[in-house]
Amino acid sequence: MNDLLKQGLSLLSSPAHRALLSQGLRGIERETLRVDRHAQLALTPHPLGLGSALTNPQITTDYSESLLEFITPAEPDIATALQELDQIHRFAYTQLDKAQGPELLWSQSMPCHLPGEADIPIAWYGRSHIGMLKHVYRRGLALRYGKTMQCIAGIHYNYSLNEGIWSLLQRAEAEPARSLSARDYQSERYIALIRNFHRYSWLLMYLFGASPALSAHFLRGRLHKLETLSDDTLYLPYATSLRMSDLGYQNDAQADLMPPYNSVQAYMRGLARAVRLPHAPYEAIGLKREGEWVQINTNVLQIENEYYATIRPKRVIRPGERPLEALCARGVQYVEVRCMDVDPFEPVGISLETSRFLDAFLLFCTLADSPLELEASDNAQNFARTVKQGRRPGLTLQRNGQPVELQAWGLELLDQIGEVAALLDAERGDQQHAQSLATQRAKLLNPALTPSAKVLAALREHGNSFEAFSLAQSLAHAQNFRSRPLSAEETAHFEAMARQSLAEQEQMETSQTGSFDDFIEDYRSRTPWQLCDFAQ
Length: 536
Prior knowledge:
The chain has a single domain (3-511), classed as Creatine Kinase, Chain A, domain 2. 44% of the residues lie in helices and 11% in strands. It has helices at 3-13, 78-96, 129-145, 163-172, 182-208, 264-274, 280-285, 323-330, 352-367, 379-389, 406-428, 432-445, 451-461, 466-482, 488-511, 516-525, and strands at residues 25-35, 59-61, 67-71, 104-105, 155-160, 213-215, 227-230, 233-235, 288-289, 292-293, 311-314, 334-340, 396-399, 402-405. Strands 1, 2, 3, 4, 5, 11 and 12 form a 7-stranded antiparallel sheet that branches.
């Protein structure tokens, strides 16, 4: 265990400080496709009973009109957030059952059998300027990457520490850290967390990757090196997460886009440059077709969120504010982990046990020494090898330029994370983090216990068909939610939220002034190139 980790654990184990561990915030965003009972994409509009996808804070859409996104409030205990996520699912089913032919929530990260590209509906957010901006952004994504890739779903895990922890850690540090403002110190420590996440996130892919197979229709004739499992299913025998491989969220224009995460300034400078850097293929597309906007700009990124990352530094944005504006003005507030697959064996897509491990893992990344990244980092290679070959016996990764077996390194990391888990359990007064760690240790010792291996085993029970297994899980989860209807009070809460969101969207549409052209030009001009003095 390195000295910085020991120091952090010692500080936080003090009775005077340990309570700070239970005062951070956790939240989950779960994406899921709407499908019919034949595992075909639902082409119906976003259900009106779910409210406005633009303004409902807990139920919205991601890329497609058919791709729901459920968002929990941020809670001190992830168990509370998971209960709220369960309630959102149960309410959603009350509305999906009213559809023409009851619909289901897809149980997988990789999509169902999709219709042709032209028939995948882009999410619609109404006629307000901000709603149209969101829609135009998605039009741009369709032209840049195709609609199929945008139908992949995931779990996003939002994580923050109480600001008192940052103050405690800063007081224990030497110069120059102690001379930083509280805001800047907190931001730099979150960036240090991200550096460690890049070093060790291959472990998450091994432990929790759950997409070793996909529908044969997904690739639409693209060249690939997958193996055939059945007429409708492709796979790799040792893969953990094809979603996070080069078959999933990839973009050649973004390759080598960002500098190493060695400071919050470097991160923001890279994003600010990318949203202003012209890209010839996107310039060839143009901004408008037949007078309609088809993308926000012709640069490498239309907006900051187009940058596909396994983890992001975030700040809650104010109405109309851009993400970079928020970071420049107020610093990093939390991180968003974006690499987690939907767990097809869990009705809400993620378990409490997994969440407890994520909390221990992220606190470990926070407290452990985090050297600056080198240009020739092995991190990306380790991640790529794990998502495609993670369960291969004897698989080696690169650590400090030397080969090391994935299993041995993983067990070493679990020993260190175990110290963090013990601290979290001491605060809670139970053994939930330690129990989760024991489950993960068993997976490293026996790859058959990993979700990816369990998916392949389940596929065999369904004729080696990805679609048959996924539909069976979707039906089982639907029955789970339908068998536990919300109380009258809970239903009234979600219905009131839906009505309020529709009223807010209508108010936005009726009260706005000026043209959409002027609005989008103003939005494009507010890239904080000038707001941040380092973004030159």
